[in-house]
């Protein structure tokens, strides 16, 4: 399973990139707004930190304008992935951009039928928002399972990118359900290496080693 960082903070992206643990980055207009940086500069900076795919979302609502924005975004860096909303206009734009070999991430996916449309339109990625489904008392992981089964049945090559991931369990369950990628917010990413039993175990090992009075070096 690949891990993307769901962030528009260049410092955070650099940190995780240095750890060698991220395969790409996803952003959205809300994250870009929070970063308070000029848009073009921010996109260039993020795309220079990682060689992996960087999803940048269009803001237009008509397919024509989405395509225009998509071409513009794709020119900003070779690793830009154009993020399009899961609307009919987004699907029309997805077909055109994908035909022009521009990778597309269809975002705000909340149902299997939406995921089928994204795949048929040639999307490179589809982003089911599992946390927001859970918020509405609908099992987000079940959606990942359905999409995986459907994509496998029909040999669709669109990658399943679990998004709106809020917990470690979301990541584990997405992996079990066969998602190709999870995009993870920085705080949750930091927490992935933690376990209280690891801390407790290390404390005991260190204390016993201290008592032994021995040295490795
Ligand atoms: O990847 C999508 C993400 O940025 C949205 O997450 O937690 O706002 O639903 P959330």
Structure description:
This protein has helices at 10-18, 29-35, 39-49, 63-76, 88-99, 112-120, 130-135, 140-153, 168-177, 186-191, 196-212; strands at residues 2-6, 24-26, 54-57, 80-85, 104-109, 125-128, 159-162, 181-184. Strands 1-2-3-4-5-6-7-8 form an 8-stranded parallel β-barrel, surrounded by 6 helices. The two termini are 38 Å apart. Helices cover 53% and strands 17% of the residues. It has one domain: TIM Barrel. The mean pLDDT is 97. It has 217 residues and is of the alpha/beta class.
Q: What is the count of β-strands?
A: 8
Ligands in the model, by name, code or SMILES, are: SN-glycerol-3-phosphate
Structural class: alpha/beta
Order of helices and strands: EHEHHEHEHEHEHHEHEHH
CATH top level?
Answer: Alpha Beta
Q: Helical proportion?
A: 40-55%
In CATH terms, what is the architecture?
A: Alpha-Beta Barrel
- The low-confidence runs, each spanning 5 or more residues with pLDDT under 50, are none
* Strand portion: 15-25%
Annotation field: number of helices: 11
Total domains: 1
Widest beta sheet: strand line-up: 1-2-3-4-5-6-7-8
Question: Key features?
Answer:
217 residues; alpha/beta; TIM Barrel; 8-stranded parallel β-barrel; 8 strands; globular; binds SN-glycerol-3-phosphate
What is this entry, summarized?
The chain is α/β, with parallel strands linked by helices.
């Amino acid at each position: 399973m690949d891990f993307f960082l769901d962030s528009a903070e260049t410092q955070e992206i650099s940190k995780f990139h240095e750890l060698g643990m991220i395969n790409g980055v996803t952003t959205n207009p809300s994250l870009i707004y929070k970063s308070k940086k000029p848009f073009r500069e921010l996109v260039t900076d993020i795309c220079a930190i990682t060689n992996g795919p960087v999803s940048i979302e269009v803001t237009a609502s008509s397919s024509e304008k989405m395509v225009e924005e998509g071409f513009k975004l794709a020119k900003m860096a070779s690793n830009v992935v154009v993020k399009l909303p899961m609307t009919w206009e987004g699907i029309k734009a997805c077909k055109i951009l994908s035909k022009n070999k521009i990778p597309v991430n269809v975002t705000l996916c909340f149902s299997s039928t939406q995921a089928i449309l994204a795949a048929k339109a040639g999307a490179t990625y589809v982003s089911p928002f599992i946390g927001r489904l859970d918020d509405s008392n609908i099992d987000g992981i079940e959606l990942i399972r359905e999409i995986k089964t459907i994509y496998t049945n029909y040999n669709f090559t669109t990658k399943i990118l679990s998004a709106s991931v809020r917990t470690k369990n979301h990541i584990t369950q997405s992996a079990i359900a066969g998602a190709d990628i999870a995009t993870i917010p920085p705080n949750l990413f930091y927490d992935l290496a933690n376990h209280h039993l690891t801390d407790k175990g290390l404390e005991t090992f260190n204390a016993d080693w201290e008592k032994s009075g021995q040295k490795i070096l």
